[in-house]
Specification:
Helices cover 38% and strands 23% of the residues. The protein has a 6-stranded mixed sheet, with helices on both faces. Strand 1, helix 1 and strand 2 form a beta-alpha-beta unit.
Length: 125
């Protein structure tokens, strides 16, 4: 996959995103500017997460969300089109207990990306 965005909306999510970037340096991390600590590895945004997720959903091959599955579903639901064009969406919970392939598992590569994340995450733990 070419373009992968990581969306963190909590302080802990930002930390998780930075750890992921150690394994996957080409991935872009996005987080609300209210959590900004000046780290240049993160794209700090000032729009609402509802607005930002639309942009990320449209402009990336995969979106990794570092917050609850329920919130992710509510945010992406209005933007779903079909399994041939929707990006892969993966959720990692805020405590890093679960990595969940949510959308575009087969055609979009979310299942394969989930396996890659699990493999690398297990080595880190």
């Amino acid at each position: 996959m070419e373009k992968i965005a990581v969306l963190a909306i909590t302080k802990n999510g930002v930390s998780i995103g930075l750890r992921l970037k150690e394994f996957f340096p080409t991935w872009e991390i996005f987080a609300p500017s209210k959590f900004s600590n000046g780290n240049k590895e993160i794209v700090w945004y000032s729009d609402t997460t509802s607005e930002k997720i639309v942009e990320l959903f449209k402009n990336n091959n995969a979106l990794i969300c570092l917050f609850s599955l329920g919130a992710v579903i509510r945010l992406i639901a209005p933007h779903l089109k079909d399994k041939k064009t929707d990006p892969a969406v993966i959720v990692i919970d805020d405590k890093t207990n679960f990595v969940i392939s949510v959308l575009s598992g087969h055609l979009g590569g979310a299942n394969e990306l989930t396996q890659l994340l699990l493999k690398n995450w297990m080595q880190y733990q």
